[in-house]
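STRUCTURE:
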């Protein structure tokens, strides 16, 4: 198969960039507790446009999530919450892009992924950690933040994709 080596190279490059961006993002304090810009997701959004097979996109997200969790504080927490969330977000971005590729951009794709990611994190936290429903009252604020940060990540991703020709 000729596609496999190309996907391997793309996944390696995008995963490496994503991991480095994740480490850099963790160096800076959070302006708002628990809300990150998500710059490490720029390579993931770009991957949605460069990698045509879902399994390779899921591999990219899995590598990014696993390695970032290994080298961060709160390994188990990050693994339990971030790993499945990014995989579900990739599923939504992949199928959204596939269904709307002629009518959408990396901005809308990123916003979809960002909103799905934070929603999944809340669902997992509810199922595994917090049993009370009261904490769900803050979900709308996190979704608003996800829309804003997703748009920024999407704008950056869109600019990179447009520059590559």
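SEQUENCE:
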């Amino acid at each position: 198969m000729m596609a496999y080596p190309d996907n391997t190279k793309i996944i390696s490059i995008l995963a490496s960039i994503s991991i480095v961006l994740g480490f850099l993002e963790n160096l800076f304090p959070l302006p708002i507790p628990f809300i990150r810009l998500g710059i490490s997701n720029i390579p993931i959004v770009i991957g949605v446009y460069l990698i045509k097979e879902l399994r390779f996109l899921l591999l990219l997200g899995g590598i990014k999530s696993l390695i970032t969790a290994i080298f961060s504080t709160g390994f188990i927490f990050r693994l339990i919450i971030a790993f499945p969330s990014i995989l579900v977000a990739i599923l939504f971005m992949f199928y959204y892009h596939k269904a709307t590729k002629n009518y959408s951009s990396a901005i809308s794709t990123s916003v979809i992924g960002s909103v799905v990611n934070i929603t999944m994190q809340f669902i997992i936290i509810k199922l595994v950690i917090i049993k009370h429903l009261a904490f769900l009252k803050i979900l709308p604020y996190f979704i608003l933040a996800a829309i804003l940060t997703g748009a920024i990540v999407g704008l950056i991703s869109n600019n990179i994709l447009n520059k590559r020709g």
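REMARK: DSSP finds six helices and no strands in the chain.
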